[in-house]
């Protein structure tokens, strides 16, 4: 099948999933509520640590309190891009054997699922993300999301967010490809998703992790989920450092796509279709 | 009452045995253990970077936090059915079948699920509390153990109340219940903040709406002697019971207004 038809099919798949995601507005509002509560709690915690702790004044690795608070809100907004589990529809297809039906379609399975899962995530989450960030902007001054460090930094941030979306989707597909090996169950994929979440900086800004881990934390793939874009916004990563950082995101995305694709093609050669 | 208790344990035994039929059942134990341990990592790392907050060391926080987590875990193990109720039993319409049986609804729903791996959370929590107590140099007397046990029991009852409340509300809103997450998994996160530095609004919400501080912070304060009135530490059981009572009223109201869903 040629390139143009693939693009056309992808864009309609994307539209269908986006429209589907918008159906569940009540659950989206409810989700925003939780994100805002969580963000607020983190703000309180960081304020306590920065203000009252023994080493609060100096030992923050170049991340001031107002920067950290902006970090918290943006990370809450970006957190939604990360998947905590494999796309429900695809998971069901793997478990009940509809993979067979999917293979009959005249479209590469990897591309098909990539578009489907990323659109599914975007459809439900972009409203949630925006609402959370908006709530962050409207908080009382000491807990509010601040302005970007510079106009250039903001532009880099936007570019990096797009890359973060690609990276998250690529990683989710990598995990899905592993999950095609049905006999392993949920365990390994669940662990992978959990570790990626912890290392993405949404648990704790990566800068505040121990100093000896900093190089590792910069180079590992999951910082690209949230940490790199957010740092570009708050200015702890200067725009001059943006190019290598975004390059890093690009590199890991390419690697995950390559790995996901090759695992999938290998797996599909010997796949056992479940169910009937 | 005794008959209901028998049924409850029969149900649990059945779920336990059927769960063990899966070959990799112990993998789940490890998985939950990783989740439980990774959860307070952020707090520990913050303490290692910023140092103590006044008198508050990492052991203080871990003690309060682990009490809360352990009681949450206990409730999750014993009342797992209510946790699933809004998402599965109600939507699928399976609840109608329970209504036909001449046994207590509460027992039937509570015991409709049981997973062994849920017990990992309370066990880890209790171990962590033990570590924190020894770190703080508190010698355990019988009375202190009594207070801590009461705190766990009260907390377990309170979280059961949360699950029952969720299920009760689910009769009215079949979807859009995600906000309840604030009362479950997000609620014990507030114990990561030292109580004296907590904002007033947060403090009153988590003592009078959800009696979170009564089941974690005040018992810990009484046991370690942090200079709070001692009687506050004994309030865990009554506070949890009141919360469960209110939740049961909501649940009753919901059941009475239940019109079947699903097919």
UniProtKB/TrEMBL annotation, chain A:
Residue spans crossing the bilayer: 26-50, 62-81, 126-145, 151-178, 190-210, 230-259
Keywords recorded for this protein, A-Z: Membrane, Transmembrane, Transmembrane helix
Superkingdom of the organism of origin: Bacteria
Name of this protein: ABC transporter permease
Organism: Paenibacillus helianthi
From TrEMBL, chain B:
Coiled-coil residue spans: none
Pfam families: ABC2_membrane_6
UniProt keyword list: Membrane, Transmembrane, Transmembrane helix
InterPro entries: ABC-2_transporter-like
Membrane spanning stretches: 24-47, 56-75, 145-172, 208-228, 234-255
Name of this chain's protein: ABC transporter permease
């Amino acid at each position: 099948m040629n390139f143009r038809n693939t693009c056309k099919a992808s864009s309609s798949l994307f539209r269908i999933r986006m429209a589907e995601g918008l159906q569940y507005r009540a659950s989206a509002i409810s989700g925003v509520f939780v994100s805002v509560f969580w963000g607020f709690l983190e703000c309180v915690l960081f304020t306590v640590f920065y203000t009252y702790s023994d080493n609060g004044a100096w030992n923050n690795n170049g991340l001031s309190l107002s920067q950290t608070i902006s970090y918290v809100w943006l990370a809450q907004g970006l957190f939604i891009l990360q998947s905590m589990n494999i796309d429900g529809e695809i998971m069901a297809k793997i478990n009940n054997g509809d993979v067979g039906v999917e293979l009959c379609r005249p479209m590469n399975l990897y591309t098909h699922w990539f578009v489907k899962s990323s659109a599914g995530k975007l459809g439900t989450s972009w409203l949630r993300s925006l609402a959370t960030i908006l709530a962050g902007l409207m908080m009382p001054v000491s807990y509010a999301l601040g302005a970007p460090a510079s106009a250039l930094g903001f532009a880099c941030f936007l570019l990096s967010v797009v890359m973060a979306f690609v990276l998250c989707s690529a990683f989710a597909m990598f995990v899905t490809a592993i999950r095609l090996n049905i006999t392993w169950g949920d365990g390994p994929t669940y662990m992978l998703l959990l570790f990626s979440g912890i290392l993405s900086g949404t648990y704790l800004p990566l800068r505040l992790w121990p100093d000896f881990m900093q190089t590792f934390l910069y180079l590992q793939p999951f910082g690209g989920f949230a940490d790199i874009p957010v740092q570009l916004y708050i200015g702890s990563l200067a725009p001059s450092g943006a190019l290598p950082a975004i390059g890093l995101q690009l590199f890991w995305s390419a690697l995950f796509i390559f790995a996901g694709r090759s695992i999938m093609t290998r797996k599909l050669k010997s796949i056992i279709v479940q169910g009937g | 009452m005794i008959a209901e208790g028998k049924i409850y344990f029969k149900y649990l035994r059945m779920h336990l045995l059927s769960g063990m039929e899966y070959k990799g059942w112990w993998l789940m134990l490890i998985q939950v253990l990783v989740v439980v341990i990774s959860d307070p990592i952020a707090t520990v790392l913050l303490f290692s970077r910023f140092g103590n907050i006044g008198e508050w060391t990492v052991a203080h926080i871990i003690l309060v936090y682990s009490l809360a987590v352990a009681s949450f875990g206990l409730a999750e193990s014993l009342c797992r059915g209510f946790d699933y109720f809004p998402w599965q039993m109600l939507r699928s319409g399976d609840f109608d079948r329970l209504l036909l049986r001449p046994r207590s609804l509460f027992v039937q729903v509570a015991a409709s699920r049981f997973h062994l791996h849920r017990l990992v959370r309370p066990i880890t929590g209790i171990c962590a509390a033990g570590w924190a107590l020894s770190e703080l140099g508190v010698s355990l007397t019988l009375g202190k153990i009594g207070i801590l046990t009461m705190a766990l029991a009260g907390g377990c009852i309170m979280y059961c109340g949360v699950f029952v409340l969720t299920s009760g509300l689910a009769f009215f809103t079949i979807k859009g219940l995600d906000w309840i997450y604030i009362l479950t998994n997000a609620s014990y996160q507030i114990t990561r903040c030292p109580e004296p530095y907590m904002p007033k609004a947060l403090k009153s919400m988590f003592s009078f709406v959800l009696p979170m501080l009564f089941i974690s912070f005040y018992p810990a304060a009484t046991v370690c002697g942090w200079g709070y009135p001692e009687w506050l530490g004994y309030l865990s059981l009554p506070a949890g019971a009141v919360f469960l009572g209110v939740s049961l009223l909501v649940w009753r109201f919901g059941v009475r207004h239940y019109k079947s869903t699903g097919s």
